[in-house]
Write a structure and sequence with these properties.
Length: about 170
């Protein structure tokens, strides 16, 4: 029943619109057509053309960013491959390299070793120093981070713990 009433009201509106249209002067009809065309053109531009142009303008920058990211990922993959191909470090030498790297951080780092795991506790270590320490430990001691619980204590300074695996071939849990 509601469909019939909707159809009836649509027909009434349509007839009223046609009556007004035919009552308009030719110049008014032409102006209404031009106005409708302008509204349609505006809608087309805002809905279809403008987003497409925006995408086209952003695409080169996005492609450069993606290329940079792919380059970084390839460099990291190459570095990982090189590290995998290096011979394992004997446990005594790995422990010595880890101690030497940790001692360079001074009182901001304390280390304890239990079996094939080393736990290093950091207190307000500079981010750059922490990154250098991680790189040195990874290369010199062939230690792999198993757990990390670090938080920024002050701007640019980090505190927390890192657990490292010292046994050759030990992989971080996934």
């Amino acid at each position: 029943m509601s469909t019939e009433s909707e159809a009836t009201s649509f027909n009434v509106l349509r007839q009223q619109w046609l009556a007004r249209w035919t009552a308009m002067a030719p110049r008014e009809r032409q102006m209404a057509q031009v106005a409708a065309a302008l509204v349609l053109l505006t809608v087309l531009v805002l809905v279809f053309i403008r987003p497409a142009l925006k995408s086209m303008q952003q695409t080169p920058a996005q492609l450069r960013e993606i290329s940079t990211q792919v380059g970084r990922m390839r460099a990291m993959a190459d570095e990982a491959q090189v590290l995998r191909q290096q011979p394992p470090v004997p446990p005594v030498q790995a422990e010595a390299a880890l101690k030497a790297a940790t001692e360079r951080l001074g009182a901001a780092a304390r280390m304890s070793i239990q079996g094939d795991r080393a736990t290093v506790e950091f207190t307000k270590v500079l981010g750059a120093s922490l990154a250098d320490w991680l790189a040195e430990v990874r290369v010199a001691a062939r230690a792999r981070p198993l757990e990390a619980n670090l938080a920024q204590s002050e701007p640019g300074h980090y505190s927390g713990t890192v657990v490292l695996g010292l046994a050759p071939g030990q992989a971080a849990p996934r």
